[in-house]
Amino acid sequence: MILIDANIFLEVALGQEKAGDCASLLSAISEGKLQATVTSFAIHAVETTLRNGTRTAEFLVNVQNSRGLRVYATTIAEEQSASALAEKIGRDFDDSLQYFVAKKVGAKAIVSLDGHFNRLDLPRFAPREALERL
Q1: Domain range enclosing 87
Q2: Torsion 10-104-65-134 (CA) sign
Q3: Helix/strand/coil (H, E, C) string of 44-64?
Q4: Burial bucket for residue 127 (CB in 10 Å: 0-12, 13-18, 19+)
Q5: Model confidence pTM above 0.90
Q6: What total of structural domains would you count in the chain?
Q7: CATH at 20
Q8: Which residues contact 33 (CB under 8 A, 6 or more apart)?
Q9: pLDDT tens-digit profile of 15-72?
Q10: CA atoms within 13 A on the CB side of 68
């Protein structure tokens, strides 16, 4: 099982450079070939970035219909723990929350285009790397 960062969804939704690799990964998850978790925080970040009702609605339908994707809603206590962890691991709140949840759910890796997840005790995979390794 892996944790998916918000930028994987955004890359596809915004048609950016690595959209193809991200779409392949999300397709494998949607079909249930891979098991993944995404935080509700990341879902909200995507919603906020998309700003468009139609694109946001389409994104949410895809999340809801994905067989291999679980949405993890953090509690305030977990967010407090992630906040304290941010200073300890030298990351911002967003990254520390993703890392905290990845550890909590037993993820094998964090899949992200964000190098801020490098040099932690969980590997960071790019989408293509996750597909090849998992």
Answers
A1: 2-133
A2: positive
A3: HHHHHHHCCHHHHHHHHHHHH
A4: buried
A5: yes
A6: 1
A7: 3.40.50.1010
A8: 68
A9: 999 999 999 999 999 999 999 999 999 999 999 999 878 889 999 999 999 999 999 9
A10: 16
